[in-house]
UniProtKB/TrEMBL annotation:
Naturally occurring in which organism (per UniProt): Krasilnikoviella flava
Ranges of residues in domain Beta-lactamase-related: 24-337
Superkingdom assignment: Bacteria
InterPro entries: AmpC-like (IPR050491), Beta-lactam-related (IPR001466), Beta-lactam/transpept-like (IPR012338)
UniProt xrefs under Gene3D superfamilies: DD-peptidase/beta-lactamase superfamily
Protein name per UniProt: CubicO group peptidase, beta-lactamase class C family
Coiled coil stretches, renumbered: none
Amino acid sequence: MTSPHTVRDLLDVDHLAAWVATQAGFARVPGVQYAVRVADDLVLEGAWGVADITTGEPLGTDHVFRVASHSKTFTATAVARLADRGELRLDDPFEIHLAELAGTVVGRVTLREALGHTGGVRRDGTDADFWQLGGPFPGRDALVKAVTTDGLVLGRGEVFKYSNLAYGLLGLVVEAVTGVPFAQHVLSDLLGPLGLERTAPELDDGGGGARAVVGHSALGVADDGRLPVAPVRTGALAAATGFCSTASDLTRWFAAHADGSDLLRPETRRLLQRDESVIDRPHARVRRYGLGFETREIEGRRVVGHGGAFPGQLSRTWADPAGRVVVSVLTNAIDGPADTIATGLFALVATALDAGAPTPEEAAALDRRTGRFASLWGLTDVVRLGSRLWLIDPRREDPLAGAACLDVDGDVLRLPVHDGFGAPGEPVEVLTGDDGRPAAIVVGGLTSWRAEDYERERRAQLAALRARGTSV
């Protein structure tokens, strides 16, 4: 693990912010809020775009998003803490705590099966149009009716079967065990003690609802038009999808689940974060799930986290419990690239941290060659990640796909030698301008100019075409 006092020497936070902005811009998403935490240090916090396309209100780092299924990490932790205290057992069936479920097939599903989505419970009910504002989210009575009349569709332990209804029932179990409303318990037992001031189990249960973003529909097929999506309460499914938060609060929340933290017993934390299910479907990424937490591997690091999809908003958080690195990305569009940005941002941060810190003299020598450059063929970033210099295409969702870690020999930069269709083994020339900054780079004989200069010329040529009546 990297010590906090060296983190800012390893990370080029300006480049990280520019990379996020590039991804957001190409996706034409209204807004993106993001944060990176390493150990106890919030090393990056930013916002790009607008909170509401109808007003043009700039998006801020304090705007609150619906983080949707991130809620499951809070609910799983609340249940696990009650188990740590001996107030319930993870192998308890629902019917022990919820009298309405006594004698029903769903009543026999255990809390652990519900936490890991292996109870066979229906996902959202037979009428789930509340997900597109076709009616209210179910309240307690509607939830109980949904699971007792037609709630179990597969056998317990048969497959991984994601279920918001099961997590709604877990929220009811928390209420039954504690004797207080779910929101009240979570606020007093989790959010308050951890200082999560902008996080709440529901939009108007605290957490700065006055600064809530507006969600937006997806882009049209032939235009960039989006529709605003009205806010809605989540009723008895708050434990599954109701939570609201900010990117920085979510990094603090997941940091509380790092190795050595005292939020849960070590063995309980490991239980939540280990792989209970592997979801391997054709033509799809292999996914893994524990008890309330998803897992993945990014740049050799095993990470835990969760995504969230809510009407008009998408979000994703990844955390390395061992390395104590957390990245959270929130978007206010139903097609927002939250997962790809969070995964790519984590990859950049991890690569920088793993490279180690250069000396101040080495860092200064490398930084003199960094910048963003553009040509007819696109964009190229020369960026320092830790002690190494990289050539990166910032348009790619995976910033390291096709990227090159440059060999540096004094004043000579060279692409690494390997099989490839690019220019492996060839030098990278950095041309310095009158201001002492890199004015252009030449890679494989092809020149790319300073991005702001290239953009200025591009806009001038567009203006000239429009002045002649050309539609561009």
